[in-house]
Design a protein that fits this description.
Layout lengths: L29 H11 L11 E3 L7 H12 L16 H13 L9 H11 L7 E3 L1
Parallel strand pairs: 1-2
Helix pairs in contact: 1-2, 3-4
Bound molecules: adenosine-5'-triphosphate and magnesium ion (MG).
Length: 133
Amino acid sequence: MKYLHWDETLFKDAEVFDADYLPDILLHRETQLNQLASNMKPALRGLTPINCVCLGPPATGKTTAVKLILNELKEYCLTAYVNCRNANTKHQIFSEIYRCVSGAVVRRGLSFNRLYVKLMDMLDNVLVYVWTI
Ligand SMILES: Nc1ncnc2c1ncn2[C@@H]1O[C@H](COP(=O)(O)OP(=O)(O)OP(=O)(O)O)[C@@H](O)[C@H]1O
Ligand SMILES: [Mg+2]
């Protein structure tokens, strides 16, 4: 046959194209992973971690690095990953954080202030941000 048959593929592992795919090893990012981990480390002792901003060119592993650290952190504290392309207002972002940490959907019409207070009650007033830009 001249072209690919329907069950043939050019790719060894097409799963790597999934938006949720996480590589086992993030190549050449040890410094960044160590920096993120050390900023988050206070959470392991119940202290407030340090907010972070991860800057860099597209597709250089910023989101992947954050997700790998979040995966480790979630054994010790509540974590939430929010894609701000989808949740792009203050209310939507905090609703998504609330959904991730409580498992419940925010009631329609709940004001931002009440949502914020509900969330902070649940988090003992500690909320740490890691932004990727
Ligand atoms: N250092 C790396 N080692 C292995 N895979 C990597 C590395 N950097 C990026 N990738 C892979 O490239 C893809 C894009 O990575 P990622 O989404 O983390 O980049 P990003 O810096 O967040 O990009 P953007 O700025 O577009 O948000 C992912 O599939 C990720 O697994
Ligand atoms: Mg990203």
